Amino acid sequence: MEVIITATPETGARTAARIVEKLVRARPRAVLGLATGSTPLGLYGELIRRHREEGLDFSRVTTFNLDEYIGLGADHPASYHYFMHEHLFGAINVSPERIHIPDGKTADIPAACEAYEAAIREAGGIDLQVLGIGHDGHIGFNEPGSSLASRTRLKTLTQKTIEANQRFFTSADEVPRHVITMGVGTILEARVCLLLAFGESKADAVAAMVEGPLSASCPATALQWHPRTTVIVDEAAAARLRRSDYYRYVHANKPAWQQDATFSFGGHE
Ligand code: PGA
């Protein structure tokens, strides 16, 4: 795992945007895995700015979102369809037919989950998956106890996640109890994972993910098994990392060729 510690969430968002931009410029038909929540908002703002001011072109990019609430349609303001339109898709030139988000209104959940996995495969796999992390170590909506080999499926939210996400609803009672989420195994197949975490409230989860034992009790630890994961954290989220001095040293002393390395993993072109 590469750990990049930035002074502020804004610097972290710009660092993440540079990585996404490098991929999209090197591979205009890139397949991006996207996340919702408060964490990626700075990244999405930066991508929109780069699209408007610097011509970053998303017209041939394909996207797959991690998850969606069961029962919420695209017109519900707390749905992830709505979120993505509001915070990214409505402001860049991605083609609507290349956007994929699990369907929270589907009548056949297992079939929709299988079709989602098939669509990812048909697109050639995900080049870069953007991730946040829950306070309990979830990625996507893979709550503690999720199989580390899990695929896209229905999950039941924990009380902690319902409470954390009630801010997007008028009350906790309104938060759906069930979701469709890509599995941990699905996420691990992305060629690159880019996990962002900002703020003191994420410090324990970040320490467990990066330095704790690999365990389904903290699904984000599965990323220790992933060959190309970059974790971008601000100082507050990095506060409980025991090896933070080493991560800073590694980042400050990267060989020039490695800093400029473009995305050279095979796959589709
Ligand atoms: P947040 O959520 O970005 O709103 O903190 C992250 C998550 O629950 O995965």
Low-confidence stretches: none
Please report which band the strand proportion falls in: under 5%, 5-15%, 15-25%, 25-35%, 35-45% or over 45%.
15-25%
Oligomer: single chain
Please give the largest β-sheet. 7 strands, parallel
Structural class: alpha/beta
Second rung of CATH, namely the architecture: 3-Layer(aba) Sandwich
> What spatial form do the alpha-carbon principal axes imply?
globular
Proportion of residues in helical segments: 25-40%
CATH class: Alpha Beta
CATH topology type: Rossmann fold
List bound small molecules: 2-phosphoglycolic acid
Question: If you had to describe this structure to a student in words, what would you say it looks like?
Answer:
With about 270 residues, the protein is of the alpha/beta class. It has one domain: Rossmann fold (3-Layer(aba) Sandwich), CATH 3.40.50. The chain has helices spanning about 10-25, 40-55, 80-85, 110-120, 160-165, 185-190, 205-210, 245-250, 255-260; strands spanning about 1-5, 30-35, 60-65, 65-70, 100, 130, 155, 180, 190-195, 230-235. The protein has a 7-stranded parallel sheet, with helices on both faces. A 3-stranded antiparallel sheet has the order 4-8-7. Helix 7 (about 205-210) links the parallel strand 9 (about 190-195) and strand 10. It is globular, with a radius of gyration of 17 Å. The chain starts with a strand and ends in a 10-residue tail after the last helix. The mean pLDDT is about 95. Bound molecules: 2-phosphoglycolic acid.
